Known about the structure:
391 residues, alpha/beta, two-stranded antiparallel ribbon, 11 strands
Amino acid sequence: MTRLRFGTFLAPFHAPGQNPTLALQRDLQLVEHLDRLGYDEAWIGEHHSAGSEIIASPEIFIAAAAERTRHIKLGTGVTSVAYHNPLWVADRMVMLDHLTRGRTMLGVGPGSLPTDSSMIGLTPTDTRELLAENLDIIMALLRGESVTRQTRTHNLIDAQLQLRPYSDPCFDIAVAAVASPTGPRMAGQHGVGLLSIGATLTQDGFDALAHHWSVVEERAAHYGQPTPDRSSWRLVGLMHVAETREQAYRDVEHGIVGWFNYFQKVAAFPQMDVGSSEDVKGMIDFINEAGIGAIGTVDDARAQVQKLWDQSNGGFGAMLLLGHEWANPEATNRSWELIAQHVMPAFQGQARGTLDAAARARGTREAHAATQLAAVDHMNAKYQQELAAKG
Length: 391
């Protein structure tokens, strides 16, 4: 198994009515925490309505997070490109690439909340069509081309970037996908990565995993792109772990009801089907029994990642855990620590070495212990001989 990267997909989800300043600070502190723990990536969402996903500009958040971290890569998860002039999307990302010295990534999508797009007179159909059109423009600009094009929202006249990316030749780019093949088609066409947001968040997304990558490969071949690298494929999933399952279940009583309520009754995002349970036990059972996540122990988390690896029919590059506040901040941070300590090594080649070393030592312990005791006896006898010679 190649080294699997781990990270977070941070929408974020905060209960309405609380202090938004403190909520945003918790988000920044979480990214700092993940950086210290050795997580590879953090993808930050863009939303403008519905009261829970309160980061309006992932680029601004990334700029703040970059100054607080050292290693973790920071991506827009995702930039709703239909809402923006594609020239400015590309320009801002190139600037971030320089400010972060190559730690920035661009994720693109149509925008998930109709309450966002409706405020600027766009329908979900509009945003999906604009995503394809604007991504064409963004990719051309990042290749250094000059673009003259009229879209339904913007008019570009000899548009070009004044800076080249810091990353050579460009920073990572990924297209979001839930259940339909739209995202995989665009990823293959442009030779960029795939963000499977519905990988475990919906049963349809899980079932479509292997199919999605086959679509990426087919479209890449059709457009003459290089064979897609599975390391550019990122899956988003749900987890909360503790030392015991019982503790994990108690932890999520803090906020899982509000999270479910958001998708069941507030956000007009039917692709995120989280069932109809209204009690904590039913919600935990839905996550675990529907196979869309893991609330439990590190063993449950490892099994979930392995299940996704097997379902992908060839592997993927990164496991991104959806940021949530099911538990309080202390228990949430502990969950991330446990995953870093006990789950990540199993998929990054670090667990096997120490396990094998322990097994070798266990198998030869008795013989080596005997030689140790023999060495002690030898030195005691030698010392007695020295005493006798002096006497």
